[in-house]
Design brief:
Blueprint: E1 11-16, H1 17-29, E2 43-48, H2 59-71, H3 77-87, H4 90-104, E3 118-124, E4 128-130, E5 138-151, E6 162-177, E7 180-187, E8 194-198, H5 206-223, E9 229-231, E10 241-243, E11 250-255, E12 280-285, H6 286-292, H7 295-303, E13 306-313, E14 316-335, E15 338-348, E16 357-370, E17 375-388, H8 394-411, H9 413-432, E18 438-448, E19 451-462, E20 472-473, E21 484-486, E22 491-493, E23 502-513, E24 525-531, E25 536-538, E26 549-558, E27 564-574, E28 592-596, E29 610-615, E30 629-634, H10 644-652, E31 659-665, H11 674-678, E32 692-696, H12 701-706, E33 713-717, E34 723-728, H13 733-743, E35 769-771, E36 777-779, E37 788-793, H14 798-811, E38 819-824, H15 829-839, E39 845-847, H16 852-857, E40 861-862, E41 864-868, E42 874-879
Parallel strand pairs: 30-31, 31-32, 37-38, 38-39
Antiparallel strand pairs: 1-11, 1-12, 2-3, 3-5, 4-5, 5-6, 6-7, 6-8, 7-9, 10-11, 12-19, 13-14, 14-15, 15-16, 16-17, 18-19, 19-20, 21-22, 22-25, 23-24, 23-26, 26-27, 28-29, 29-40, 30-33, 33-34, 35-36, 37-41, 41-42
Helix pairs in contact: 3-4, 7-8, 10-13
């Protein structure tokens, strides 16, 4: 008779679709791990429209060749070819030659011109699946895609923007190949089962969707090679069936606990979903569970039992020995909440005058789950229901039943526990093939008239540092925000940005435009543009070499448990790599250029408008040549018109576009308002193409590096990194212009190259050992299991002090605050103690002598704050300070950073 829970099978594992989608999210996240054995790509570039190359039919020969290679020592294809050709008879040698040529031939192909053919750059979300209700041979894949198409010359263009949902059904079946079971997965041959649905707002019509869907079908059917999957010989889940629809859908995986073969045509017998709201559930039919309880052992135990009862005769009491036996039962009856064990035990004696008797009983037993140890035990529920002969004391009858049932439960505990433990281990073993941190945990057990159901959840956990400590939940990786140039520098692209285990819904670009006078570098205006359908932004007209370009992505992600959550990556702004650099140790002197906040008002003190400082030293030789010649001008800021002669000289230079100017001002110059500062700048600046950047001589670093004896002074370093000319004292505009015309080296067109660390979000944070100012020893690897904020600062930098104040507020926020440590990169160790007292800092401060740890992370911007998650991965990088100094986001999600 078919079991309502398990059909014609001994057991059925049901897994919620949401749980499988969470597992697929982990495979999507695995794209960040180059060593992950299984992964789903988040972005790819592929050719479409190329006609398939004709090859001889070598599929069968290829299978034979693989088996031949496996049978012998490790050999390459050429070695195998040579060996086979040398050993084969003459006729077979020719056949082998023809077969091997099938792997090598590259047939000439005529490309029809009027086709869709070219390169596609494709962003792919984490995929989800559905299974048609009742299906055991189809799986539908759902993915959100966003693509940019680059057509080949003289070919047909595609509708744009390509942004929407791909829904593709795949046929799934198993076949027997020799002694193996192979899983075959192929795209459906029915066009109606592979569709593209445009995202709302794209403006694409039905005809556009049809054209895009046609290309998707070609890619899936012709461009992808889905190899058969050889299932392990002991793989228990060889067949599946979809049950239900929508969010409550499950996939049923029947299997045999006894190792017996699967019943033929047993899938139609699976009709019921018993998973509830759990992530997975295991049902074991009552027939199999009953077989685990040794009824014969209970019967034999009773048969060997003797009971001595005191029986009265004519006022005298005698001890009479009774032998016990089952006259009916014991019988197992499955009910809601427990298993009833019932029977009738005869109490018989050989004493002729003593009466025989009986004990009828019913005892409810249940399965108890210990969630801590994940073990199942069989235990009695309450007192047995006993009916006994008149002369048998009720207490004695109850004790007989309780003791025998107790012995039986104890004797059957191991097989009961084993079946559920092994089922869980089998599930975990299958899951870890996809997610090495996957764990399945039982949460509840239920007994029904049809069998036992045990439910649970699937998640990702790892142990603490060095494999010790409590398990740590493995969450999703931080979103990756990546900005690059494309279209030969004419546009920015977010192609490599992605949300691990999720999808991007919108891309928010922001940037700072600079227009007008070259000396007015803090007059930038902040702009933004939100795009839901494209990942490419044509470069705005106001973007210059000193502009910031920023990116924020918003979307959703599927957690490991299958729940969907919204996510946004905090605004990441990229500062251009300085176009001028000196290859000297970064810790010798502070040589930095300030990064300015946009929209600075006339009355704001310029020091308050600095978002950060970027160092120009390179600790290692630059991989790319300089793009600018650099004129370093030490101004006499005490004169009334300190820059007039410099401005006049620059206006006479023939190729000032190849030049950048750094004006070094004495400490304190930025304490004035923007209006006061600009009043000292030249009024006539026409014809000057060179960008001009102002910096203060912080701690006298610029003066010592250039050995400046007096101001003004001028120093010229050409694009080949050569110090070529200097002048001390007031420069003659004509002489300075002539020197520039003589020494300026030709340079390529200036390109935007973002400043980057040695680590990016998703990378493992480099380990470091250090001692704080309280002589406490730390190592980053010992702090795993807790989020960390690593801050790098300089005592002379106003934005660094602002960031330290923000971190102190976060440190005081409560017990859930991350571990914060700040590394001081300055040479003055006394400044560290002074800053702690002045700002009231209570988190660890470290004197990073020679910027050892800063250089390990590649820090060149002050301040830089790096968030590291509990697993030791870089989650977010913040350059400079937040615009919103009182942000509730630990990393300042609303900030525009340097």
């Amino acid at each position: 008779m078919t079991n309502p829970l398990t059909g014609d099978y001994e057991a059925v594992m049901q897994i919620a679709i949401r749980q499988i989608n969470g597992l697929l999210g982990t495979l999507h996240q695995n794209a960040a791990n180059k060593d992950a054995p299984l992964k789903l790509l988040h972005s790819t570039a592929l050719r479409i429209g190329d006609p398939p190359r004709r090859r001889p039919d070598v599929e069968v020969f290829g299978d034979w060749l693989i088996e031949y290679q496996k049978a012998g020592p490790s050999r390459g294809l050429d070695d195998v070819r040579a060996q086979l050709s040398a050993m084969a008879p003459p006729g077979a040698t020719r056949m082998l030659s023809d077969a091997f040529e099938g792997f090598d031939q590259n047939w000439e192909i005529e490309y029809p011109p009027d086709v869709v053919r070219g390169l596609v750059k494709l962003q792919v979300s984490s995929v989800t699946i559905t299974v048609p209700d009742g299906s055991s041979s189809e799986v539908t894949i759902h993915a959100r895609v966003r693509a940019h198409y680059y057509p080949d010359p003289n070919t047909t263009d595609m509708p744009a923007p390509v942004h929407g949902d791909v829904r593709a059904t795949f046929d799934v079946r198993t076949v027997q190949s020799q002694s193996r079971t192979r899983l075959l997965i192929q795209p459906s041959p029915q066009d109606s089962k592979i569709q593209f649905v445009a995202a709302p707002g794209t403006g694409l019509n039905a005809a556009d969707e049809y054209r895009i869907a046609a290309e998707v079908r070609k890619v899936l059917r012709e461009g992808l090679t889905l190899l058969p999957v050889d299932l392990p010989t002991d793989f228990p889940f060889a067949v599946f069936k979809g049950l239900g629809s929508g969010p409550s859908q499950v996939i049923a995986l029947p299997f045999q606990l006894s190792g017996a073969g699967l019943p033929a045509n047993g899938l139609p017998s699976l009709m019921q979903s018993f998973i509830g709201s759990s992530g997975f559930a295991l049902a074991v039919g009552k027939e199999y569970v009953s077989g685990l309880i040794d009824i014969e052992a209970i019967r034999e135990a009773i048969k060997n039992r003797q009971v001595v009862l005191r029986i009265g005769r004519w006022g005298v009491y005698y001890d009479v020995t009774y032998h016990l036996r089952f006259s009916s039962g014991p019988t197992l009856t499955f009910k809601n909440g427990g298993i009833e064990i019932s029977g009738r035990v005869e109490a018989e004696t050989s004493t002729w005058w003593a009466p025989n008797g009986f004990v009828s009983f019913k005892q409810l037993v249940t399965l108890v789950l210990n969630t801590a140890t994940q073990t199942i035990s069989l235990e009695s529920v309450g007192e047995p229901d006993v009916d006994e002969s008149w002369f048998i004391p009720h207490g004695t009858a109850v004790n007989i039943v309780k003791s025998e049932i107790g012995k039986a439960l104890s004797a059957n505990a191991v097989p009961i526990r084993r079946v559920f433990t092994e089922a869980r281990d089998t599930l975990v073993e299958g899951l870890t093939a996809f997610d090495p941190f996957a764990m399945a945990s039982y949460t509840a057990v239920e007994i029904t008239p049809a069998g036992v159901i045990i439910r649970g959840e699937i998640g990702s956990f790892t142990l603490g540092p060095r494999g010790k400590g409590r398990p740590i939940f493995v969450g999703r990786r931080a979103p990756v925000v990546d900005i690059a140039e494309t279209h030969q520098g004419a546009a920015f692209t977010a192609f490599q940005s992605w949300i691990p285990g999720g999808r991007i819904d919108r891309i928010i670009w922001s940037w700072v435009e600079h227009s007008g006078r070259d000396f007015d570098i803090w007059s930038g205006t902040e702009r933004s543009f939100t795009d839901e359908h494209r990942f490419i932004l044509p470069k705005p007209a106001g973007i210059t070499g000193i502009s910031q370009i920023c990116l924020r992505i918003e979307g959703s992600r599927i957690m490991a448990g299958g729940q969907e959550a919204t996510i946004a990556a905090g605004t990441t702004c990229q500062v251009p790599e300085p176009e001028f650099a000196i290859e000297v140790p970064s810790w010798w002197e502070p040589l930095t250029l300030p990064i300015w906040r946009p929209d600075v008002s006339d009355t704001v003190t310029l020091r308050e408008a600095i978002a950060g400082h970027v160092g120009i030293q390179h600790d290692v030789p630059g991989k790319e040549p300089f793009t600018r010649n650099a004129l370093v001008y030490f101004a006499d800021w005490h004169s009334k018109k300190p820059l007039d002669k410099l401005s006049l000289a620059l206006s006479r230079v023939q190729n000032s576009a190849a030049l950048m100017v750094i004006v070094v001002l004495p400490a304190g110059a930025f304490d004035s308002s923007r209006r006061e500062f600009e009043s000292r700048l030249p009024s006539a600046r026409k014809g000057i193409d060179a960008p001009v950047k102002f910096t203060e001589d912080d701690e006298g670093g610029w003066t010592r590096m250039f050995a400046v004896a007096k101001t003004p002074s001028v120093y010229l370093i050409n694009a080949r990194r050569e110090f070529v000319w200097k002048h001390e004292g007031e420069p003659d505009p004509a002489v300075l212009a002539a020197a520039l015309d003589q020494h300026l080296a030709p340079t390529p067109v200036s390109r935007f190259r973002p400043l980057r660390l040695n680590v990016s979000p998703g990378d493992s944070a480099p380990d470091a050992a250090f001692e704080d100012d309280g002589q406490h020893q730390f190592a980053l690897h010992r702090l795993r299991g807790r989020e960390m904020l690593l801050n790098f600062w300089q005592s002379w930098s106003a934005p660094c002090l602002t960031e330290l104040c923000r971190l102190q507020r976060l440190h005081q926020a409560g017990r859930e605050a991350p571990f914060i440590v700040a590394f001081h990169g300055g040479k003055n160790s006394k400044a560290l103690d002074e800053i702690r007292k002045r700002l009231g800092l209570s988190f660890p401060l470290v004197q990073d002598l020679q910027q050892r740890i800063a250089r390990q992370y590649g820090v060149r911007c002050w301040p830089t704050t790096i968030m590291v998650d509990a697993e030791g991965r870089v989650e977010h990088v913040q350059f400079g300070v937040c615009h919103d100094a009182v942000s509730s986001d630990p990393m300042g999600a609303t900030s525009v950073t340097c």
